[in-house]
## 1
Amino acid sequence: MDAVKTNRGTVWTASAHIITAVIGFGVLSLPWATAQLGWVAGPSLMILFTVLTCYTSTLLASCYPSGDPNGGPRNYSYMDAIKENLGGFQVKICGAIQYLNLFGVAIGYTIASSISMMAIKKSNCFRSQGDDSSCRISANPYMIGFGCSQIIFSQLILDFHQIWGLSIVATIMSFIYSIIGLSLGIAKIAENGKVKGSLTGISIDVVTPMEKIWKSLQALGDIAFAYSFSLILIDIQNTIKSPPSKYETMKKATLLSLGVTTIFYMVCGLLSYAAFGDLSPRNLLTGFSLYNPYWVLDIANAAIVIHLVGAYQVNCQPIFAFVEKTALDRFPHSQFIKTEIPVPIPGYGPFKRTPFQLVWRTIFVIITTILSILMPFFNDHIIRILGALGFWPLTIYFPVKMYIVQKKIPKRTAKWLGLQILSVACLMFSIAAAAGSIAGIVYDLEVYKPIGNMA
């Protein structure tokens, strides 16, 4: 079916896709990031990343058509845009970074979902056995359960055109658990009777000077990840109907979704830091692990799981599309790859998929689930290092480079120099954040035991 004929997306559906990919899961780590940076640097960096992401996302959205934002041949993926505007080896570099990031995020979401499901189980355990109970629970069954659900959704949802309903549900869920975290933070401040935190973040009395440096750099990775959606921006833009132009609709969706995201990030991150101060947890909701009534946190964690089901699909659809398109291009006459077969589903009706889609998507989910089981400690670090390594090339460098090429901006002009300075400055940010994330991985590897209980 021609993709253009199925495009029915609007500002609202595009915003839902962006919010599903961005808000919610990222917000949970922001109180910890703010605790490392303090009242000044924390919110300042959130605002800075908002402005940068909004600006460069607009540049990237203009690359959906080649040349003219309101017309011209369409680029249906990030790699298509790179190929059309830059070409050469940069296409392979972009693809490797983009799909490695999406693959890593799938692992991170699998781990994160198991943490929330275990939190619900522990809550029930505390209720029945008392708050002093150890209630140790293995994460493996929950990761397997999440993987099984993704196998089903990966087959039911063919591409971005069919995911808008799940994205809207996931967006609602992200608001639910963000609001719960915000409300509990306010209650915690009232319980403390004061606002915690400091201008410069966690004090040297709590950590060593070197730990302060590394943790501050890790916080940069957290914030970078929290604003990362450029790697699926063009895929989202491809779902939008026209007229009006896809570029104008995407620009409005970007402004709307990032505006909502920033408000939630600022309010939740800062209020939670005010509640916990230097002891802000890596996951906002874990700071209330013994909070009564338990059902409040159960709702929040259930909302996280539902959100992550949708976020997993939003992030993995570009991988599915790339592999399936590449396979069809390489083997255009293969019946295994191109022939659709009807798959009967009781109560749903038959739907058509190729044997390759059925096998490949199932194998992909199984691999991400197995890696999640083998590396459960890796969740925080995978977020930071992917945020650090993916932010500069995908959010800054390629959009800026393609914009310069499209607009034919002469070298050494004021605008050209400004864009180059922006790119280099963000590169320094990414290198610093990656260094902090690697230091954290090295530390955890020293104490890591594979396939053990997580809680």
Note: The domain at 3-447 is CATH 1.10.4160.10 (Hydantoin permease).
## 2
Amino acid sequence: MTDEENSSAATTSSAALNHHQNHLSLYDDDGRPKRTGTVWTTSSHIITAVIGSGVLSLAWSIGQLGWIGGPLVMLFFSVVTLYTSYFLADSYRVGDPINGKRSYTYMEAIDNILGGKNFIFCGIMQYANLYGTAIGYTIGAAISMMAISKADCIHSSDGKNPCSVSGNRYIIGFGAIQLIFSQIPNFDKMSWLSILAAVMSFTYSLIGLGLGIAQVAENGTFKGTIAGAEAETHAKKVWAIFQALGNIAFAYSYSNILIEIQDTIKSPNEGRTMKIATKLSIATTTTFYVLCGCIGYGAFGNAAPGNLLTAFDKPYWLIDIANLALVIHLVGAYQVYSQPLFAFVEEQVAKKWKVVENEHKIQIPFLPSYNLNTFRLVWRSFFVVVTTFISMLIPFFNDILGVIGALGFWPLTVYFPVEMYIKQKKIPKWSGSWIVLQSLSMFCLLVTIAALIGSVAGVLLDLNTYKPFSASL
């Protein structure tokens, strides 16, 4: 072989090697496209999932528990959520935290570590919870849009018109928005939406906090009592405490999508990044929760409303901004909770019919090209339409969501993470660590049962005045 031929062969070999290396740089160790998530994108996903409209009900919750019980319960659940989230983060890879087998979903983590019927039980709890949350967020967003419309109507009439507002058109409007956003292919492509939603959650929380501080200043004192709001009977007091415990516990819950969020983090050592993001996010949300809850209770005392924003009617434009920020946040939160369900269905269907993986590139003017998947378009649109219809049919679904949340809190946030941690770390039965972890699990089970009782009671009360398609404000 001549020198020229040797040189040509070497050049070809070098080009092939470079091409192979460039190809590998686009993919992770499991052959999937390279994940790009960071501490900040992960934190935005978590904050979007955790700081929901539930933050506005925390003043009422503290009102039922009192000045001592309320903050203590909030801190307790923040610590529980933090440590069980650490357990879950360690469950993303089986065995070796760097090179172990990945679990792409919560269900896969259960299957890989615990196996058996746990897999099926987890799937039912997780996806029922995700679907119920999507419906609850649709109703919550509609209520905020109705509040904006009603406030503007009352203001324009100088308070002479009570302005009753129907919610169906707002539910449909929110559904139409989700028809578009539901076509975002996966978690990894929606970091920008999560960041926007996280900013919006801070916006309405800060407005609620600011209005509460102004009300405290106007009152000249902090209202509220050590024991919290009084009730007509002891039974009703216990009832209210159950509901408050449930509200606070579920306000921290995002475990049902933690593994899916962790699967967006770039290698190596995704567990370490997830723990840092979790610590940052839980610290941030706890600070906001304690401030909003305590300031709201201090402003209105035992008369604190279920939604802090409804306690204010001036300045109406600032309250409108808060409600608008809440709507934008719920647009992103809806997607954060729906994407795992979308991915699960599409993965199961793809195993049987490969045709669902076919994509068609569409060039959109002034925007990057979009890969249209026909199955994704039809299935996700169907999901949004059904969600929207149920939201109109049962406008008190937030209480049913409380039932679903109560059923899902203990198994998804505490039981499974604890059991996977015990299995992975090989903690001996009846050892000190085992007893502490099981005691924590049992206590949280009791809280779940109490919250479930309160939520079921709320649904029964709603059924007494139930009218289909009757959402109004």
Note: DSSP finds 14 helices and four strands in the chain.
